[in-house]
Amino acid sequence: MTPEPSAYLSISGLAKRFGNFTALEDIDLEVAQGEFVCFLGPSGCGKTTLLRAIAGLDIQDEGRILMAGRDVSTATPAMRDFGIVFQSYALFPNLTVADNVGYGLVNRGQPRTKIEARVTELLELVGLPDQGPKYPLQLSGGQQQRVALARALATSPGLLLLDEPLSALDARVRVHLREQIRDLQKRLGVTTIMVTHDQEEALTMADRIVVMNHGVIEQVGTPEEVYRDPATAFVADFVGKMSFFPGRVAGPGRVQIAGVELSCDDDRGMPAGSAVSLGLRPEEVKVRGVSAADPNAVEVLIDDLEFLGSYYRARLLPGGEAVPITADFSANLMRDLAISEGMRIHVVLPAESLRLFPVEEAAGLRAEAA
């Protein structure tokens, strides 16, 4: 793979094995200068192994890594231009906040006055201007994470690596800090890669998301592309919520589930008779202004309603042997239509919102869930 001129990081044919276990297989990826990319996937999918290979902490068995056009495939971490923030923060407890931030600059032999000025600048940048004399244990988890971020940025690296930096924080602090990190990255323009298993973090922070599973990349795209047009059943199920129904292609733009034939814009050119898994996101089920005569209208029983604050998650049972449909009803919809459990209503499954996947992909998801 020839790197594009704008690519700061280029990875080609990368593989990593631990004994008989293949952690990464044939990874190809390019990250543009100044881009914020999230590696997203479940535990054990290979995302942290890939980050460590980029950092030179675990050298790959095969493949090539270029940073700013320089081949660093076998270079030591010290020879690669990056800063890293670990999940555990890894701050030195016996050093003050200021000394932690300036640690890399001291190792590079920078003059003391220059180090002090840079530390002051960075502590201001991360919102901790008065915390320099304190020790890490005197700070909250969120503050410690910001110190770790300042330390990673101290040497002005070309690449910033974040290994699940927010997973140890409580929900409110996590939301606040992810906004700060994203704003800081935009201001500095530093190329950034973040590992996370949290889809909300990836969707809100990333320019592009790299969805990984079992050591391979399933899809690379913007948050909107990954969510709205998932390339595989795994991506559709992992990023957001999706209901899956077994069916068959009835013809061009037509699919049949449980004896009901529906229009479907996403037939993917599959021949009639092909077994498929039909996917639909909960928020795409249309309820308001629906009649039995509408295209793709289905009568359902509201079997269960789960209150989730600003909306209700509904379990809808179509007639026959169809798989239950999951739908999200806003509080306004619940009030306006007086929705309650036990009601029978008509819903529309919009043709443009239905996604087709090979049946074996969804079968694999069910097997893993079991």
Question: Summed up, what is this model?
Answer:
The chain is α+β, with helices and mostly antiparallel strands.
How would you describe this structure to a colleague?
It is a single chain. By secondary structure, the chain is α+β, with helices and mostly antiparallel strands. The protein is 27% helix and 33% strand. It is built from 11 helices and 19 strands. It has helices at residues 47-55, 97-101, 103-107, 112-125, 141-153, 171-188, 199-205, 223-228, 233-238, 331-336, 359-369; strands spanning 7-18, 21-32, 36-40, 62-67, 70-71, 82-85, 159-163, 191-196, 208-213, 216-221, 243-251, 254-257, 260-263, 275-280, 297-307, 311-318, 325-330, 344-348, 355-358. The strands form 4 sheets. The chain has a 6-stranded mixed sheet with strand order 6-7-8-3-9-10, sandwiched between helices. A 5-stranded antiparallel sheet has the order 13-12-11-14-19. A hairpin with a 2-residue loop joins strand 1 (7-18) and strand 2 (21-32). The longest helix is centred in the middle third of the chain and has 18 residues, at 171-188. It is elongated, with a radius of gyration of 25 Å. 39% of the residues are buried. The model has no long low-confidence stretch (mean pLDDT 92).
